[in-house]
Amino acid sequence: MKDKEQFFLKIYNLGILKFGHFTLKSGMNSPIYIDLRPIASRPDLLIKLSDLLLNEVPPHTFELICGVPYAALPIATALSLRSNIPLIIKRKENKGYGTKKMIEGIYKKGQKCLIIEDVITSGDSLLKTVIDLEKEGLIIKNILSILDREQGGIENIKNKGFKIRSLFRIGEVLKILEKKNLLKEKEIHIIKFFLQKKYIKNIQKKRISYEEKKEKIYHPIGKKLIEIALKKKTNLIFSADLIYSKKILELVNLIGDKICGLKLHVDIISDFSFSFINFLKKISLKKKFLLFEDRKFCDVGTTNYLQLHHGIHKISSWADVITVHVLAGSKSIENLNIPSNIGLITISEMSSYGRLSDDNYIRKALNISLKNSKVIGTVAQRKVDNRLLLFTPGIHFSDSIKNYKGNSYIHPNQAFIKKNCDFIIVGKAIYQSDNPKIVAENYRKAGWIAYENSF
Ligand code: 5BU
């Protein structure tokens, strides 16, 4: 610790911490600005920093080093020279010509890479580097940052399943400066207050209850779904992916009490008819659940419109909720001419293994979802804005089908606790079971308990 403290005081003397009024890259105002770039001009300190970092992760655990551009590049280079472990370089932007590579250097798919970040705030730029390296088939085992601003970045990265450590934390650094009388009392007070405020903001990001969500969701179908969930104590949506209507009706009669929604893929039903739909509608009214059509419209607006209102299924005449992709842009779901008793669920991020949506796409899809008043929620594999309901397919109790035929599966506990999910969608775990009634009840119970335990 003494060693680390002495090192910190040396870099502090380079002017790496500034106090005043700053606007960070994220737009956030901050009374403290951290810039570790001056270290690059001091080879002696770069060597010392490399040694301290190598104490944090044993060199045999990685085969490559990559710095998050640009500030961490000299540090990653020094670490590479010090450890004799090869460096690779991540570009900030694709250069747009030549090889169009995002990662430069010599590497092979499957190699383990250590990532170095200078200062971690939200962890967003770090995640961009992680994604680009993973796209190249590299395995990210360890991430090291020099200074953690303690504003949620470390948790963000850990929640995504990565191991991350930081050499220094802001709280610890302030204590060192306080001890050495290097900060005025007033400065310490302002910074501590600022950090505390951010912490509160993080807490507020936690999940909200169905009752609170009902206040934030304006669409009547979104509100209705929440009311059903609360009344029946179920957040289970049954995905009846079966090809004969008789079988679907049998199952729905059996488990209709346990569910708040029934999801269909109407185009897989071999004997589709409107009398089937009428039966289903009657059961849904009696047992109180909504009808979801998982048609995943994904065309230009005019074609989406025709597919929704016409053809043999006339989806808009019976479905309460319909899924749509937003790949074709916001306009593709703007003029569908649906009545207010139909809600849309956008697909921002599928549950499938190897999905192509990246962070940028997902952010844009979520923005489109928030701006469209017909949208009640979305499918995503992450926490989303509290104004959207989050639907999670790919649910199974069994660990042995974590990755089954290209779909990835998680336990309801993970869906609620890690992702703040609102509704679980369960298909084969129920319809392929020997006793769908008991199994559906088990999923209902598990989903409800997981929701209650997720606060
Ligand atoms: P399963 O049998 O529990 O795997 O059924 C999942 C259902 O959810 C199935 O109808 C899929 O088409 C649907 N699904 C999904 O699995 N993943 C997604 O991202 C979306 C829908 Br969107």
UniProtKB/TrEMBL annotation:
Its cofactor is Mg(2+). Pfam families: OMPdecase (PF00215), Pribosyltran (PF00156). Pathway: Pyrimidine metabolism; UMP biosynthesis via de novo pathway; UMP from orotate: step 2/2; Pyrimidine metabolism; UMP biosynthesis via de novo pathway; UMP from orotate: step 1/2. Orotate binds at T121, R149. It is an enzyme of class 2 (transferase). 5-phospho-alpha-D-ribose 1-diphosphate binds at K25, R91, K92, K95, E117, D118, V119, I120, T121, S122, G123, D124, S125. InterPro entries: Aldolase_TIM, OMPdecase, OMPdeCOase_dom, OPRT, Or_phspho_trans_dom, PRTase-like, PRTase_dom, RibuloseP-bd_barrel. Its EC number is 2.4.2.10. It comes from the Bacteria. The keyword Heme does not apply. NCBIfam families: pyrE, pyrF. PANTHER family: OROTATE PHOSPHORIBOSYLTRANSFERASE, URIDINE 5'-MONOPHOSPHATE SYNTHASE. Homodimer. This is Orotate phosphoribosyltransferase. It comes from Blattabacterium punctulatus. The gene is pyrE.
